[in-house]
Structure formats: C-alpha cells, structure tokens
Amino acid sequence: MLVAVILAFLLVIVFCFSELFAPEMAVIMLIFAGLLILVDAYVTYMYGDKAVLSATGAKPADPVKHVYFINTVEGIALAAGIPAPKAYVIPNSEINAFATGRDPKHASITVTQGALDNLDRQELEGVVAHEMSHIGNYDIRFFMMVAIFVGLIAILSQIMLRSLRYSGGGDSKDKGGAYIAILIAAVILAILAPIISRLVQLSISRKREYLADATGVKLTRYPPGLAGALEKIKNVNKGKMPVSEAVSHLFISDPKSTFMDSIFATHPPIEKRIAALRAM
User: Fold this and answer.
1) Among 94, 131, 209, 271, which one carries the catalytic annotation?
2) How far apart are CA 125 and CA 138, in angstroms?
3) What is the pLDDT of residues 25-64, one digit of tens each?
4) Confidence band, pLDDT 50/70/90 cuts, at residue 141
5) Is 74 a catalytic residue?
6) How much is the mean pLDDT over the chain?
7) Interhelix angle for 176-220 vs 67-80, to 10°?
8) How confident is the model at residue 172 (pLDDT cuts 50, 70, 90)?
9) Nearest 5 degrees, angle CA 206-CA 208-CA 108?
10) Which of 135, 241, 250, 262 could form an SS bridge with 255, CB 3.0 to 4.6 Å?
11) What sign does the CA torsion over 257, 40, 200, 253 have?
12) Which pairs count as long-range contacts for 65-69, CB under 8 Å and 24+ apart, including other chains?
C-alpha cells in the first residue's frame, strides 16, 4: 500500500506536467512514464545491489583475514534456511552493516571493519542475523525498489519546478481557470511530493528494522547479542560515514547524522530498539 502511494505520486506528477506543457500528449506521456518506471524497476532489480556495493566502497571479504566473519555468515544462513550470502567489508572504523540484493539467492551482507574490530562473537552474530533477516524477509528487494522510486519523484519534481520557473507559466491568463488550477496543483505537488514520498520511505524502513531485530533474535536465540551491538553503535559511532543518503536506510544504523534526524531519520530510535531487545 505504501509503495502504491509512491507510484501514484509518480504518475500524478507526469500527468500534471503533460497537462501544463503538452495536454494533447497527456495519455502518451502517462504510457511512456509507466514504461520508464517498469524499465527502471527492472534495472534496479537486476543490478541495484552492485551499484550499492560500489557506492559504499564495499570489498569482498578476505577468506583468510575475515574467515570468522565469513563463517558467521554461513552459519546464520544455515539457521535461517537460505543460501549463504556473499560477504563484504567496508574499510571504515564505525560500526555498521547492511544487506542488499534482489532475493536470498542473489544477496550479500556487508559489515564495516569497525564492526569486526569492536564487536565480540555474540554481538557480531546478532548483527549478521539482523541483516540475514532483511534478506529472508525480502526487505532487500523492497528497499532498493522504494529508493529508486523516491529518486525518480525527486528528479521529476525538480524538472517540473525548473520548467515552470523558466517558462513563467506561459500565457496562463489566456487559458482559463482550469489551467491555473492545474498550475497551482502542479507547483504544490512538485514541492510536497519528494517530502511525502521520503516520509513514506522512512515509515517503511523503520517498521522493517523492528521486524529484522525480532527475526534476528529468533535466529540466534540470544537477544543480548544484538542489544550489545546496538549499544556499542550508539556509543562509538559519530554518524560520519562517507555514504549517500540514498542508501543510508539500508544500514543497521543511520550512517550519517544530521539535525533533521528527528523527522527524516531512516531508523527508529536506537534506545527503543535496545529496550525492546532487553525485554525479550
């Protein structure tokens, strides 16, 4: 239902854009937009994980140096009943991790070097189990698709606003009240659509984080492991990882801290997550 809201925004933006600049082409543009969304979704579905790994600087785990991490991934995958994902490491001192891919057969789990250096065995297992849950619950596919649709809305909104700015609204005085109403609606929509779609994305991400915490504990049977990892993340991380905001919702904890986190945070408050785990 939430993804449908984002798709509806995409199509409405295209409709308003076509009604303003080429009303006779409105139907054709809607069909073209639908095809573009399908193509974009397919490309993201097939190759989005590679783009995410490249954007975050993740490297394949070394079979000698990172043997324990690789063994942990394989063990948790066995407990989850899914194929073992590929293991990657980000050379960064903060404690974090994420999973990506289109399905359990084409998935990977990435941790930072800081996670390997600072987490004990049970805490690392808790983090890996959390990410394994995202894979088993198909959150990885969900997150990639939503991220690309939100990006499309932002791009289309900017195109519309710039077009209106440079065209000056055309000869709107001669086009009647209907045109003016569409013009006003288009401006409002272009401004609000990226914000609303972003809030929808965050709502999805926050709900799935709680689910992954619970499912991860189901795999390890040890809530203090993940709770301890989250406490270390809270105390050690500075929120300065050099990654794009477009992929920040994939991580177990927000890799970038900003003054707008109270509104646009991609994760639920870490204190609430720890409290829920401690109560299990």
Assistant:
1) 131
2) 20
3) 778 888 887 788 778 778 878 888 898 899 899 999 999 9
4) confident
5) no
6) 84
7) 100
8) very low
9) 115
10) 241
11) negative
12) 66/116, 68/121, 68/124, 69/111, 69/116, 69/124, 69/128
Enclosing H/E stretch for 222: none
CA distances from 28 to 10, 12, 37, 149 (A): 15, 14, 14, 20
* Token pair for 173: 């005085």
28, 81, 231, 267, 270 from 112: Cα distances, Å: 47, 25, 16, 18, 18
Contact between 123 and 144 under an 8 Å Cβ cutoff? The reply is: no
3-state per-residue secondary structure call for 38-104: HHHHHHHHHHHHHHHHHHHCCEECCCCCCHHHHHHHHHHHHHHCCCCCEEEEECCCCCCEEEEEEEC
Tell me if residue 244 falls in helix, strand or coil.
Answer: coil
Judged by DSSP in three states, 107 sits in strand
In contact, 135 and 161? CB cutoff 8 Å: no
Domains of the chain with bracketed CATH: 2-49+142-202 (no CATH), 58-140+205-278 (3.30.2010.10)
